[in-house]
Amino acid sequence: MPWVLLVIAGLFEVVWAFSMKQSEGFTRLWPSVVTIVAMLISFYLLSLSMKTLPLGTAYVIWTGIGAVGSFLLGVFFLGEPATALRMLAAILIVSGLLLLKFATP
């Protein structure tokens, strides 16, 4: 169950990062509200997963999901470049996350 909570926490991190971009520096109300609510949910679920998982593992997985998820949203919805080097970087992050997951008891 802690892994499920951690993945959901990471997905909420993607939500708050994307909505923060949409809030335009917290000048738009609803994207700002979504940002704050998603942050609270993400932090809460991360804290629950940390009851069982090691700090380093939980935090790295959480930030990795957020980083790669935000990168993909930027590419697919915001028109950010998907160069070969950027894609390789995302693949390496995911590879590191998988290795860390399998290395954690």
Provide a concise account of the structure shown.
The protein has 105 residues and is an all-alpha fold. It has one domain (2-103). It is built from 4 helices and no strands.
Question: Would you write up a description of this structure?
Answer:
The protein has 105 residues and is an all-alpha fold. It has one domain. It is 81% helix and 0% strand. The chain has four helices and no strands. The protein has helices at 2-22, 29-49, 55-77, 84-103. Helix 3 (55-77) runs antiparallel to helix 4 (84-103).
Rg result: 14 Å
Main β-sheet: number of strands, strand sense, barrel status? none
Summed up, the domain count is: 1
Mean pLDDT: 96
Q: Number of helical segments?
A: 4
Strand content: under 5%
Judged by helices, strands and strand pairing, the structural class is mainly alpha
Q: What are the low-pLDDT stretches, counting only 5+ consecutive residues below 50? A: none
Q: Tell the overall outline.
A: flat
Please give the alpha-carbon distance between the first and last residues. Answer: 14 Å
Task: Provide the helix percentage.
Answer: over 70%
Order of helices and strands: HHHH
How many strands appear in the DSSP assignment?
0
